[in-house]
Design a protein that fits this description.
569 residues; alpha/beta; six-stranded mixed beta sheet; four-stranded antiparallel beta sheet; elongated
Length: 569
């Protein structure tokens, strides 16, 4: 199943996701404890404000025209001081939460990127790259933003609600009882809206990943799209994908934004009831004007955080959906570990034997049927055949990107399964038809995989690949920066750079998969002569269509329909 198709049609286990997110926050437990203490201090100071306000009003009420302004000023100053210090402490809490959230994003992105290198090749053969990138970028950002704002908000809300409720009970039990009438409405509505929005935010995240994948795919093929005049068709297709993503956003957010107004309505209902009953209690002498005023302020503080939490519930649901997508990626089945006691290779000879190998990608249709071949050290085998015959699959098996269902592959007379994958793959140097260069200097691209290569060795490899003269025409020679995927040089020159990279490698086996397909005939002859020198004493497997590429092979295998149909020279 493609990762981009992993859309959640119903809510996942919220408790399980939340629990795992808390475990991921373990490195920050000490800082979170400090945040909790500071939040408590900020909320406590903030809760003193209504009490001081009520005392100031009582002082005015008791004065009857002879108000002692020094007492009123004292209570007013205390109220101002408590609110001011509360906000300063809250600022420190917010700064700490920014630090925690960004470090958390850093950790999650590192985990996701490291996970990429532990996944089997089959994942990259089937997954939408845009969806994977969406999990590493967008979903991590959603979780990080939620941690930054929502944790401190919920923490302060809980403290404020409990503190306000205590003060309300202390001031007036009848007024507190009226306030409690509206709480069940809040709880019932929150549970109901959660059941609706939770799966919608999961679908929204998945649709966003699908849109990213489509855009990336179309961007990489833009030249082909324009060459075939498919701009309108692609635009229509993107319109459909974009509409699906927009609809998913609308379906989720249009329901999420109702939380705030509904909770505000319930809050205002509570305020109206408190005001009415408070007036009655004041007129019958059961409460002072200051007590009624303080109670109303505390009721606002009591309902306000509940309202704020309700407003951010859609963000919390979205963050939990994003966290589920991240965790589902981190939980992907990794490449099978090396067998216990796996052998290392110090000096490989380059002898390869494939014995009666059969293989299927999906477990249903066999791509290779009972294939056998033998490659001695220093020999060259060419594999030819129509597209889809299974040529590249043989290479995938040799490199242990996949393991055969039947048969055995030997390297230096030992089953490849006996070696560690990294050691085994280090025995092969590959030049593929689809070249890959990264954003870096020409020298860094040629020396990729050979960390200790000197400038002289790089130049020698470039000369053998017949690319040295071109490199010297670049603005900074070997220090010229190649743009992403080599976009500032031609396709043929990119292929020559990857060939130079293979020349620099000391791997005993060289795999050339249509390695000269992007090189003109004249350049190919020069490269072929250089390859002949390079291949001296090295084993080579060549997949090609051109006769000139395989004419010097010691053996030519014709592969068709997953079988070796002919052998010869």
């Amino acid at each position: 199943m493609k990762l981009g198709r992993m859309i959640q049609s119903k809510p996942k286990n919220t408790k399980g996701t939340l629990k795992r997110l808390i475990v991921e926050l373990k490195p920050f437990y000490a800082l979170l404890l400090l945040v909790t203490i500071l939040s408590f201090s900020s909320c406590f100071l903030s809760l003193l404000g209504p009490y001081f306000c009520g005392e100031a009003i009582n002082e005015v009420e008791r004065g009857f025209g002879m108000v002692r302004m020094e007492n009123v000023s004292k209570w007013a100053f205390l109220m101002l001081f408590s609110y001011l210090v509360s906000e300063v402490v809250l600022m420190a809490v917010n700064i700490l939460m920014v630090f925690i959230s960004k470090k958390m994003a850093f950790i999650l992105r590192n985990k996701c990127f490291e996970k990429l290198h532990r996944l089997p090749v089959s994942v990259f053969d089937t997954a939408m790259s845009g969806d994977i990138l969406s999990r590493i970028s967008y979903d991590v950002d959603v979780v990080s933003t939620s941690i930054q704002t929502d944790i401190s908000q919920i923490l302060s809300s809980v403290i404020t609600v409990l503190g306000s409720f205590f003060m309300m009970l202390k001031i007036s039990l009848p007024l507190s009882a009226v306030t409690m009438v509206t709480i069940p409405l809040t709880v019932v509505y929150t549970i109901w809206i959660k059941g609706i929005t939770r799966p919608l935010y999961s679908i929204r995240s998945a649709k966003y990943g699908e849109m990213n994948g489509f855009v990336e795919e179309m961007f990489s093929g833009e030249k082909t799209i324009q060459a075939y005049g498919y701009e309108e068709k692609v635009s229509r297709e993107f319109g459909e994908v974009n509409k699906a993503a927009s609809d998913a956003y609308f379906n989720a957010d249009s329901r999420g934004v109702t939380i705030g107004p509904v909770m505000g309505m319930i809050n205002n209902l509570s305020l109206a009831l408190n005001g009415t009953l408070g007036s009655v209690l004041y007129m019958v002498g059961r409460a002072t004007l200051g007590q009624v005023s303080s109670f109303i302020l505390y009721s606002r503080k009591f309902a306000g955080p509940i309202n704020e939490v309700a407003n951010i519930m859609n963000e919390i649901f979205s963050a939990l959906s994003a966290a589920e997508r991240i965790f589902s990626f981190l939980d992907q089945k990794e490449e099978a570990p090396d067998k216990e006691g796996a052998l290392s290779i110090t000096e490989g000879k380059g002898k390869v034997n494939v014995e009666n190998v059969s293989f299927s990608y999906d477990g249903k249709r066999e791509i290779l049927h009972d294939v056998s071949l033998s490659l001695e050290k220093g020999k060259i085998i060419a594999i030819v055949g129509p597209t889809g015959a299974g040529k590249t699959t043989i290479i995938n098996l040799l490199m242990r990107f996949y393991d055969p269902q039947k048969g055995m592959i030997l390297y230096d007379d030992r089953d490849e399964m006996d070696y560690g994958r990294r050691d085994l793959r280090s025995q092969y140097a590959m030049v593929l038809q689809d070249t890959w260069l990264f954003c870096g200097t020409v020298e860094e691209n040629i020396a990729y995989g050979v960390e200790k290569a000197t400038r002289e060795e790089v130049i020698e490899a470039a000369k053998k690949a017949r690319i040295h003269n071109f490199i010297m025409t670049l603005p900074k020679g070997y220090d010229t920066v190649v743009s992403e995927d080599g976009g500032n040089i031609s396709k043929g020159q990119k292929q020559l750079l990857t060939i130079a990279r293979a020349f620099l490698s000391s791997s005993p086996v060289l795999i050339l998969d249509e390695a000269t397909s992007n090189v003109d005939t004249s350049t190919e002859r020069e490269v072929q002569r250089a390859m002949n020198d390079l291949l001296s004493g090295r084993t080579a497997i060549v997949i090609a269509h051109r006769l000139s590429t395989i004419e010097n092979a010691d053996e030519i295998l014709v592969v068709d329909e997953g079988e070796i149909k002919e052998r010869g020279t």
